[in-house]
Design goal:
There is one protein chain. Strands 4-7-8-9-10 form a five-stranded mixed β-sheet. Strands 1-5-6 form a three-stranded antiparallel β-sheet, with helices on one face. 47% of the residues lie in helices and 15% in strands. The longest helix is centred in the C-terminal third of the chain and has 24 residues. The chain is α+β, with helices and mostly antiparallel strands. The protein contains eleven helices and ten strands. The protein has a domain of 177 residues: Alpha-Beta Complex (Lambda Exonuclease, Chain A).
Length: 285
């Protein structure tokens, strides 16, 4: 199903979500500086969403944490992916694809890593207390529902796909290289998690008429010992994310209105090297 109208969609696959109409956090990055609208237009018309090994690992951790009973329906664990450099290997690979029957193939190494990462999250004190509270309250829990709504200022259809939400909280699970506060703060800015969080809050508020004002981020390292941390973005970060997505929506609306997708300025510009590149060689051997 391809989303084209406002609403909450519980049964849209990740692939369908990425092919749907409207702006999401990921394609907003292509509209906003230092990118440009022409870059967005090209990728929207030419680039298909592709699953990667990193994406599949993240999906495995998500499934083990949020929907462990669904894991065998979505994943096909194997010892090792056959190499296709011989007729025997090609036949083994084709047999593996047939046996997987559309499920995501995950080898022993990634399976072990996903289990270790998920275990660190599930045994985290905040996670355990939160899940216990949600279970006892019998709140409605929604996992990977796709949201679509109209932005009031631009009238542009926006999209978001929070990992998990209840009547009053949103939980997103992130895998990362370094979950420490300083390092993950950089990752939030680099991958625009603050904008993603603002979209989830505002989308759910618009669609449910309930007030969502924060996102709980559970973060787990990809490398052993797979430290897990819990963060809540402060109001300033959420406001920055809100400013960015509304700016992207206004740029998109103007592009649609004028049918003009601007590229980089065709001028001669002054260019400097980064500040860290300035150094003296006096004390270097």
């Amino acid at each position: 199903m391809i989303i084209s109208n406002p609403g909450i969609y519980p049964d849209v696959t990740n692939e369908e979500y990425h092919r749907s109409h409207g702006l999401s956090n990921s394609n907003m990055t292509l509209l906003l500086p230092p990118s440009c609208p022409r870059n967005y237009e090209y990728h929207k018309n030419n680039a298909a969403h592709k699953d990667t090994d990193a994406f599949n690992l993240g999906t495995a951790v998500h499934t083990l944490c949020f929907e462990p009973l669904e894991f065998s329906k979505r994943f096909y664990p194997i010892e090792e992916v056959p190499k296709r450099n011989s007729n025997f290997g090609k036949a083994a690979y084709d047999g593996m694809i047939k046996q997987a029957a559309g499920r995501i193939i995950i080898d022993r190494e990634d399976m072990s890593m996903a289990k270790a990462m998920a275990n660190q999250v599930r045994t985290h004190t905040v996670w355990r207390n939160l899940m216990k509270k949600i279970e006892q309250s019998r709140e409605l829990t929604c996992i990977e529902h796709s949201l679509a709504w109209l932005d009031e200022e631009s009238n542009v259809l926006l999209r978001s796909r929070p990992d998990f939400y209840t009547d009053d909280i949103i939980i997103d699970l992130k895998t990362t290289k370094d979950s420490s506060p300083h390092a993950f703060a950089r990752a939030v800015a680099e991958y625009n998690y603050h904008r993603q969080a603002a979209l989830a809050c505002d989308g759910l508020t618009a669609l449910t008429k309930r007030n969502y004002n924060n996102v709980i981020l559970f973060v787990v390292d990809k490398t052993p010992p797979h430290f897990a941390c819990c963060y809540v973005l402060n109001e300033s970060a959420l406001q920055q994310g809100r400013y960015e997505y509304k700016k992207a929506a206004l740029i998109y609306a103007e592009c649609i209105k004028t049918q003009t997708w601007e590229s980089y300025p065709e001028i001669v510009e002054n260019l400097d090297i980064p500040h860290w590149a300035y150094r003296s060689f006096e004390n270097e051997q």
